């Protein structure tokens, strides 16, 4: 769960809100019964608040040393809505690279491990003691070679 303008909003909702190709504004409003709504068009008869949606995905790649040592295994922390996670999985499969995936929204254990890493976005890829935040093919190839897997 992530906080957004004081309201608790699941990461999956944020992912759904930002998956369209064209950027859209998101509005928050509360009806007469106190129920909070999120819409892409503000109702004319309600006071609304524009929501700033922040994508919880690494946009650029960074590297670090992991607190976990995965040996020669590739470990991927992901979320189902993450486009970079999908690219990483496709790359691993097409290059016959075995990997273990942990979806941080579907597994409490995966979320705890992800939190211990101090991660702030997905994907997070671990190989040996190396950590990659985000995904790029060339970056992964360097990480993979550095970990002595190839």
Task: Please give a quick description of this structure.
The protein has 150 residues and is of the alpha+beta class.
Walk me through what this model shows.
With 150 residues, the protein is α+β, with helices and mostly antiparallel strands. It has two domains: 2-51, no CATH class; 62-146, 3-Layer(aba) Sandwich (Glutaredoxin). The protein has four helices and ten strands. It has helices at 11-17, 83-94, 108-116, 137-146; strands at residues 2-4, 7-9, 26-30, 36-39, 49-51, 62-65, 74-78, 99-103, 124-127, 130-133.
Protein traits:
150 residues; three-stranded antiparallel β-sheet; alpha+beta; 25% helix; five-stranded mixed β-sheet; disordered N terminus; 2 domains
The CATH class of the largest domain, by name, is: Alpha Beta
- What are the segments in which pLDDT stays under 50 over at least 5 consecutive residues? 1-23
- Percent helix among the residues? 25-40%
Calculate the mean pLDDT score and round it.
Answer: 81
- Report the CATH architecture of the largest domain: 3-Layer(aba) Sandwich
Secondary structure tally, helices: 4
Overall shape: it is elongated
Largest sheet: 5 strands, mixed
**What gap, in angstroms, lies between the N and C termini?**
37 Å
Q: Structural class of the secondary structure composition? A: alpha+beta
Strand content: 25-35%
Going across the biggest sheet, name each strand in turn: 6-10-9-7-8
Tally of extended strands? Answer: 10
CA-based gyration radius: 18 Å
Question: And the CATH topology of the largest domain?
Answer: Glutaredoxin
